[in-house]
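Memo subject: From amino acid sequence to discrete backbone structure tokens
Keywords: amino acid chain, backbone geometry, structure tokens, three-dimensional fold.
Body of memo: The sequence and its backbone structure tokens, given next.
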Amino acid sequence: MSTQHPTADPAAGAAVKAADRAHVFHSWSAQGLIDPLAVAGAEGSYFWDYDGNRYLDFSCQLVNTNIGHQHPKVVAAIQEQAARMCTIAPGFAVDVRSEAARLVAERTPGDLDKIFFTNGGAEAVENAVRMARLHTGRPKVLSAYRSYHGATAAAINLTGDPRRWPSDTASAGVVHFWAPFLYRSPFHSGSEQQECERALAHLENTIVFEGPATVAAIILETVPGTAGIMVPPPGYLAGVREICDRYGIVFVLDEVMAGFGRTGRWFAADHFGVTPDLLTFAKGVNSGYVPLGGVAISAEIAATFDERPYPGGLTYSGHPLACASAVATINAMAEEGIVENAARIGEQVLGPGLRELAERHPSVGEVRGMGVFWAVELVKDRATREPLVPYNAAGEANAPMGAFAAACKKAGLWPFVNMNRTHVVPPCTVTEEEAKEGLAILDEALTVADGFTV
């Protein structure tokens, strides 16, 4: 059961909930059907409600609190910056903005040494696409099904999951293609090598039939996040890089979720030895303590705007409080070996632990991931791989996943559940003991999911 926290205050929680329901309009929700948890506080890998129930945060909120909740060095940096200078316009040179850019550029692959700051990941994608189109003079952008790139105008059209559907204009210059995913291969592949080869052939055919001279960019999540944490097979990203070079297409990697330690490296691209032309980031750059995102830009694309003004900007681009928190976050991650911890926990605890659960639970079809970035695919039938709930299920059709999630929460773990999957995405700071605590709760909750198998 969930651990009791000493700061229980149900009356205060009821007041918070009442004010929320009266005035807050929530994202991605039917407003009359939701019952948001009133959160009283958070620290490290945990948060708690006003009734005193404590939850192990295996969702990292929205897979962004990579450094955990309330890291003292980051909190102190925000406080110090607020006392010194809360805000200044983007056109000025400011110490924390310059230092945040330097620290990001120091860690990005290749020559991605110029940083354009945004307020978050969606705006980073918007600006990356704008840069690619202006650099190439071409209109189209290719993106994968089973992807998420944000909820703003271009980003939502690039997205390859059902959240796009209500906002899809069908005129945004976006073409979707299938990226590799061996467990549910659209190419009927029998091996990772086949999946890689067939996915690359499919991508190139798509480009050829769309007209290479019309394609500005290909954007891929280095390791897709919300869509299922499908680690690309060896050679795939290098193959995309080669195709982009051959056709003069800008290669954009979206590292909003996968970056800053999540996969056990500073950037997921580091696992694959690939350098994109543009790289988007947000979330883990400062664990969401203050909104911040950005685009890391190659020398060639940056040079496009040496004499030509870049037609984009944001009032809060490179906001001092956000940049101060990024400087503190990146330095703390380096000093405390947090990226290395994520890699170790993935290799020694989460990977082996989840594979062991898969052996014992018939509801687990596949386990995949790296670092502290894992997906557990839940199925009705292992033999047919039928998902535990249908694609984009809602209401009663989604009841099995709802029951699984409820079991997690009742036992004191807050899960990240999407469609027929639960994602295991604790902070990069998670300890071995906390990771094992989470695995034990998942073991219990998977027994509930097992009850829906054939």
